Amino acid sequence: NAISTGGTAERNYGIYLFTMVKGNNIAGNYINTSGTSYNFGIYLYTDVFNNNVSNNFINISGSFDNYGIHLQTRASNNTLTANSISTGGSISANYGMLIQDVSIGNNITHNYINTSGTSSNFGISLQNGAHQNNISFNVIRTSGATISTVTNYGINIASSSNNTFVSNIINNSHGSAIRLSSNYANNNTFV
Length: 191
Fold this sequence. Notes:
Layout: E1 2-6, E2 12-18, E3 21-22, E4 25-27, E5 30-45, E6 48-49, E7 52-54, E8 57-72, E9 79-81, E10 84-89, E11 92-100, E12 107-109, E13 112-117, E14 119-127, E15 134-136, E16 139-144, E17 152-158, E18 164-166, E19 169-172, E20 175-181, E21 189-190
Parallel strand pairs: 1-5, 2-5, 3-6, 4-7, 5-8, 7-9, 8-10, 8-11, 9-12, 10-13, 11-14, 12-15, 13-16, 14-17, 15-18, 16-19, 17-20, 18-21
């Protein structure tokens, strides 16, 4: 499938799985979303589990708050593999993948992620109780526009514990390759 969504306002979605959705195969899609802000390539939200998201080509652009793949609120035990993701905005807050709000046990492997903008760009970010996820063999590139703002992160972990990171390749400019912050970013394993 070739999917293109865009508008002059915010909240444009390529593929959106919402509330008690399980066992779907989302594969081989070409997704392009754009708008002012809050643009999503693939969004799994609220009790969405055991889905396969693989081999998708995702391009997201807008002013700010752009998300390639976003898992939120108990989006658990999903497989995200071999996706090619590019997110970029004219301002900030561009995410390749954002996993948050008690999203547990996801398998995230062999993805290629490129994020860019002025600042606060994230390759993969785990936030607010994203526990026991496997993040392995991903290639991540993050960049910002100015050297004075060093808030771009290849992998960001905030208040998320017991995750495993294996053999990820990270190329970061104007920030840190890996960042752990906030309370309870504990017992994560990097190999």
